[in-house]
Write a structure and sequence with these properties.
Blueprint lengths: L1 H74 L4 E6 L13 H5 L7 E6 L5 E11 L2 E11 L1 H51 L14 H72 L5 H29 L7 E3 L1 H18 L3 E4 L7 E3 L1 H18 L5 E11 L10 E9 L30 H11 L3 E7 L3 E9 L4
Parallel strand pairs: 6-8
Antiparallel strand pairs: 1-4, 2-3, 3-4, 5-7, 8-9, 9-11, 10-11
Helix pairs in contact: 1-3, 3-4, 4-5, 4-6, 4-7, 4-8, 6-7, 7-8
Main location: membrane
GO cellular component, one term: membrane
EC number: 2.7.13.3
Length: about 475
């Protein structure tokens, strides 16, 4: 509607200006043309009477010439004609014509002046010189009223104003019609576009008519339906992708549980032997009451130890949706290390956890445990017997490597460093590709690092890898510090 009013206003203003200028130029042109015609008529009349006045002057003198001028004036009532003797300026008070201009006037260049009388009427004064024997005898004064010209100018002005008023009324009518035919319909289209921008594809716009605007409304409705369908398909695909990713993460977790099974089985062997031996002594009835009580306490302690190990394993293997909570990073990593100690002992590898200055942050503890577990398990497999794996946790200020110009912020970095076989340069670009692995057949599926990278990326972080073949590797997890 605003666009319609602006377009009509600009168009109407242009037409009004052109019409006004055209009327002004027409009046001025015709006014000058009228004066030219009057001058030509007076010149023709002056030439007509000139010879007669000269003859009358010679035969009858000045009085005869003046009488002849009066006769001409009586015959031409549309103008006032009178005789003005040369040098007698007091008889022409209304014509302020300079003396020099009168003296140099000829039949081809008459002296002219335009005056306005006391009543406000304009007159065109022309002085036709009369020479007798090369002497300037006087002038014939022609006083032409310009009332008809003024009347014509007024009528032209009135007509122009009437045309302008008519155009203005037409412009108002066009604006009203434009608001009804174009403006309101465009408002509906704009409102529909805003709803689409907000993700609301319901309520198709209703545009009546059979013109371009109605076709635009139909096309907008079709686009809205297409976007709604694509949005629904995208949501379904996104849900399927998230479900698939969660399944892959769960599979990877179960794979890790399988790797831990042998170490945990070895870890459970000793307390099971203790429980079995103590139970056998109690069953033999060879113990005193005090010894039976002591054996029961030992059985209870070893049973609690086994239950804690199994509970850690079950908690790690249990599948649940992602859920953030405030977690102390060091406690989370310490839990993982305790869970992996049996596997490390089985391979004669030492796990070390350094002191941490990292503050509690918001993350999904089970997912980050899975990531740290994958990295430590890989480090154990890559280490030689007697090797050491160091895990450190610090708070650092940095920016993502893919966006170096991004403002720096605080990150929690969890570093897992080993001195094992390392990673070749050919394998580095494919390290996080799904199903890519450098291990022997049956030892790995190639999902661990891929799943870990996806989890860290979902948390807004990244994984940095530094490795040299034969010298070891260092995997660093960067997680943004977040409040609850």
């Amino acid at each position: 509607m605003k666009l319609t009013a602006k377009l009509v206003g600009i168009f109407l203003l242009g037409i009004i200006l052109l019409t006004g200028l055209l009327g002004y130029w027409t009046v001025q042109s015709e006014y000058e043309q009228f004066k030219q015609i009057k001058s030509e008529n007076v010149a023709a009349l002056g030439n007509e009477v000139r010879e007669t006045i000269v003859v009358a002057w010679k035969t009858e003198g000045q009085l005869g010439a003046i009488k002849l001028v009066r006769d001409f004036a009586n015959r031409h009532q549309e103008m006032i004609i009178r005789w003005v003797p040369s040098g007698d300026r007091h008889q022409t008070p209304s014509a302020e014509v300079p003396k020099e201009e009168l003296e140099i006037a000829t039949t081809e260049a008459m002296a002219t002046v335009q005056i306005r009388d006391s009543q406000g009427n304009e007159h065109y004064m022309l002085y036709y010189p009369i020479d007798i024997e090369h002497d300037r005898a006087g002038y014939v004064e022609f006083k032409v009223p310009l009332e008809d010209v003024a009347q014509y100018i007024r009528m032209t002005t009135y007509r122009t104003i009437s045309i302008l008023i008519g155009m203005l009324l037409c412009g108002v009518a066009v604006v009203v019609a434009g608001v009804s035919i174009v403006g309101r319909r465009l408002d509906k289209l704009v409102e529909k576009t805003k709803r689409i921008a907000q993700g609301d594809f319901s309520q198709p716009v209703q545009i009546k008519g059979n013109d371009e605007i109605s076709e635009l409304g139909t096309a907008l409705n079709q686009m809205s339906e297409t976007l709604e369908t694509q949005q629904r398909e995208l949501q379904e695909a996104s849900s399927a992708r998230l479900s698939a990713m969660e399944q892959l993460r769960h599979v990877d977790r179960l794979k890790t549980v399988g790797r831990l099974a042998s170490g945990i089985a070895h870890e459970l062997g000793t307390p099971l032997n203790v429980v079995s031996g103590r139970a056998g002594l109690i069953a033999s009835n060879r113990l005193t009451e005090e010894e039976v009580k002591e054996s029961a306490i030992v059985i209870k302690s070893e049973s609690d130890r086994m239950a804690a190990i199994i509970r850690q394993l079950l908690d790690f293997a249990r599948r649940r949706p992602p859920q953030r909570s405030i977690v102390q990073p060091r406690e989370l990593v310490s839990t993982v290390i305790n869970l992996l100690q049996p596997l490390a002992h089985q391979r004669d590898v030492l796990l070390e956890l350094s002191e941490s200055s990292a503050m509690p942050t918001s993350l999904d503890p089970m997912q980050i445990q899975q990531v740290v577990t994958n990295l430590i398990v890989n480090a154990i497999h890559a280490s030689s017997p007697g090797g050491t794996i160091r895990v450190s946790i610090i708070s650092t200020k940095t920016s993502p490597p893919t966006e170096p110009n991004f403002p720096e912020r605080n990150y929690i970095s969890i570093c897992v460093e080993d001195h094992g076989i390392g990673i070749s340069e050919d394998a580095m670009p494919h390290l996080f590709d799904p199903f890519f692995t450098t291990k022997e057949v049956g030892e790995g599926t190639g999902l661990g690092l891929s799943v870990s990278y996806g989890i860290v990326e979902d948390h807004g972080g990244w994984i940095d890898v530094q490795s040299k073949l034969g010298e070891g590797s260092r995997f660093t997890i960067y997680l943004p510090e977040q409040d609850a």
